[in-house]
Specification:
This protein is of the alpha+beta class and 679 residues long. It contains 22 helices and 22 strands.
Length: 679
């Protein structure tokens, strides 16, 4: 609770005590008026001031003017009764202002709570970076740290700039970035993102980006700009309030004036001015559009905050609204549904490998018993040969068998451009490469029906087997696609890979429609076709019905999302109705072009983002229908005299409090399962 909220709470409590005390005391006349005006001004001075400034500056009439006119009118009626020997009802006027301020306090508290979630996310960017100079650690402005510099991050500190760990092992907390609560273990060579918190030991990081280009800075930029992109619902409420507020003021004036004139001129009876003025004041209190004006933006704000807690950055409420209407999900393959890095998928030793190892007499590696030992033997040999190669496939082989720091002697390393590499390992010539290299040395290589890059191995000119390197499907891709399908969202895969690889991945994940061998321009072209096809699908919506009445048919097309990660996906991300980027391994261009960023690259976050958006839009619609429905019902009943001021207070403040509390439900991140609720 901030200082402003605490001050308002004190005013509310003080006003309540004074109101109860004055009501119990038997004051009369001018003394009674003064004692009731005291709590009125304590609780309502700021509302009266805002209303006066609004009139002075000729701004559109708002809820402050409605509250001021209604309560001042009620006090005027009560003062009139006091001077005519009756007991004026000041309690209603003070209570209207009191309950209105209580509702405002609830609204402020709810906004503060959702803003806190955003602030916690935005607090991920540190204000300093540590540099070690002459054995001493000094703090520097991270803006002045050049790319390639070495920074020190102590336990408990946030990583200020993206980089690679040079030395030190530790665990880091990435929950502010990805929503993942489990710590991540890091070691020399590990990539780390700014905004993560170092937990256990000091680490030295070589920076790979400038401070303003690092992950934390990019996230802050996205979050800061999110509130500026308004949804159609928010724009509708803004336009609605500008028309609605003056309309109800003039209606209230008409209610106070026209019936008494009718009584004089038509019915020929004395006009009951006080009755109709009282009803007009009730009409004004009821008509205050606080619930709509406050709860709709708050619902979106809470939804954006809840999504950020789950590691999903949505760049604006308009994208939240579009995401909820997605019916087709077009997705890239590499780096999106697959890991985007080469892994050892299979090891197939030759039948002759055992004899090769036996003949070697254990000179360069000891043969084990059984197929699994032979696989490890073959991988060990290859890892030694590829030990110093910078090729991505070599990196994958070294990661598959990292224990190469043994007594094996590796000499005479030779690169064969476009073919492979060779080396002498403990006196034995080892060749590792493709079919061309095998044919060149006369080794009778064997083909393989598995998909992926085939790495052939020969020992002393004899074929020893091959290793399959492939892009591995992410563990959650199949489940994510299954959830999307279960909720009526069509999934289409686009890839630049071969037809055989695309078919295999699509079959394993459960995608029926896919396109292969596509260049970036081809992806955009095919996406255009999907968008055109979806725009032909029409369904009757409330908006369509309204526009039909106006004499023009406007259909609400199904929305198309594109999910990607690479720079080649940026054009498609920008062209789709809503672009979703994998933020962890995704390129800066992809993140910049996307409307939604998934910070941990987990495909399960795709249906979760849709679920969060649908829940948020559902809450928005609930608040709109509830607020407008109750308002018009109460306005009608108040106009005909069936509501007094206390009912008016509920219609205004009660509806606002209920709508605000309902809006805060958007902060709660739903669990991901097979069911995504309709909005």
């Amino acid at each position: 609770m901030n200082k402003k909220q605490r001050t308002m709470l004190i005013r509310i409590i003080l006003t309540t005590i004074l109101l109860i005390s004055v009501s119990l005391l038997n004051f009369t006349g001018l003394t009674r008026i003064v004692f009731f005006l005291l709590p009125y001004f304590i609780i309502g001075w700021d509302i009266l001031l805002k209303a006066a400034k609004g009139v002075k500056n000729r701004r559109s009439m708002d809820e402050n003017l409605l509250m001021a006119v209604a309560t001042i009118g009620a006090i005027a009626l009560a003062v009139n009764d006091e001077f005519h020997g009756k007991e004026g009802d000041f309690t209603e006027a003070v209570a209207v202002m009191l309950f209105y301020q209580i509702g405002e306090w609830f609204q402020s508290y709810a906004v503060g709570k959702s803003r806190k979630n955003i602030s916690e996310l935005m607090d991920i960017r540190p204000d300093y970076a540590n540099i070690e100079v002459d054995g001493k650690i000094t703090k520097r402005d991270p803006d002045n740290i050049e790319v390639g510099s070495t920074i020190v991050v102590l336990p408990g500190e946030k990583i200020p700039i993206d980089g690679v760990v040079e030395s030190g092992t530790s665990s880091i907390n990435t929950s502010a970035l990805t929503g993942e609560s489990l710590p991540l273990d890091i070691e020399p060579g590990s990539e780390v993102l700014s905004g993560a918190v170092n937990l256990t030991s000091p680490i030295y990081i070589k920076t790979t980006k400038a401070f303003e280009e690092s992950t934390a800075s990019k996230i802050m930029e996205i979050v800061e700009n999110a509130s500026s992109a308004k949804s159609k619902s928010e724009n509708f409420i803004t336009r609605f309030a500008k028309v609605y507020t003056p309309a109800v003021v003039f209606s209230a004036v008409a209610l106070a004036v026209i019936p008494p004139i009718f009584e004089i001129m038509v019915a020929g009876v004395p006009p009951e001015w006080s009755v109709w003025i009282y009803r007009a004041l009730i009409f004004l209190v009821i008509s205050c559009p606080c619930a709509l004006v406050i709860s709709v933006p708050l619902s979106f704000f809470s939804g954006l905050g809840g999504a950020s807690r789950a590691g999903i950055l949505i760049k604006g409420s308009n994208y939240m609204e579009t995401l909820a209407d997605v019916k087709t999900m077009v997705t890239d393959k590499t780096g999106t549904l697959t890991k985007g890095v080469f892994d050892v998928d299979a090891i197939h030793p030759s039948k002759m490998l055992c004899s090769f190892l036996h003949k070697a007499g254990g000179e360069y590696i000891k043969a084990g018993d059984g197929l699994e030992h032979l696989k490890q033997d073959l991988l060990h040999v290859v890892a030694h040969v590829e030990k110093f190669s910078p090729h991505p496939i070599a990196n994958s082989l070294r990661e598959a068998y990292p224990n190469t720091n043994d007594e094996c002697e590796v000499t005479d390393i030779q690169e064969f451009t476009g073919k492979g590499i060779s080396a002498i390992v403990n006196g034995k010539k080892i060749h590792v490469g493709n079919e061309k290299l095998m044919e060149e040395i006369g080794a009778k290589w064997q083909s393989c029906d598995k998909d992926g890059a085939i790495i052939h191995v020969a020992v002393s000119g004899e074929y020893a087997g091959h290793i399959i390197i492939a892009d591995v499907i992410k563990p959650t891709s199949k489940e994510a696609v299954s959830i999307l399908h279960a909720n009526g969202i069509k999934v289409i895969m686009l890839t630049g890979d071969t037809e055989r690889v695309a078919e295999k991945v699509a079959a394993e994940i459960g995608i029926k429609e896919y396109k292969s061998r596509l260049l970036p321009a081809d992806k955009v072209y095919y996406l255009e076709q999907v968008l055109a096809e979806q725009n032909k699908e029409k369904y009757i919506s409330f908006e369509t019905l309204i526009n039909t009445v106006k004499g023009r048919i406007v259909t609400a097309p199904h929305k198309v999302a594109f999910v990607g990660d690479g720079i080649n996906d940026a054009p498609s991300l920008a062209r789709a109705d809503v672009g979703i980027a994998m933020g962890g391994v995704g390129s800066d261009a992809a993140i910049q072009a996307a409307d939604v960023v998934l910070m941990d690259d987990d495909p399960l976050k795709i249906p979760l983002a849709v679920k969060i958006a649908k829940k948020c839009i559902k809450i928005v619609k609930q608040n709109v229908y509830f607020a407008i429905g109750v308002k018009f019902l109460c306005l009608t009943l108040g106009a005909v005299g069936l509501f007094n001021m206390w009912f008016a207070i509920f219609a205004d403040v009660g509806v606002m409090v209920i709508a605000v509390l309902n809006a805060t439900r958007a902060l709660i991140v739903p669990k991901i399962d097979k069911k995504i609720p309709a909005c």
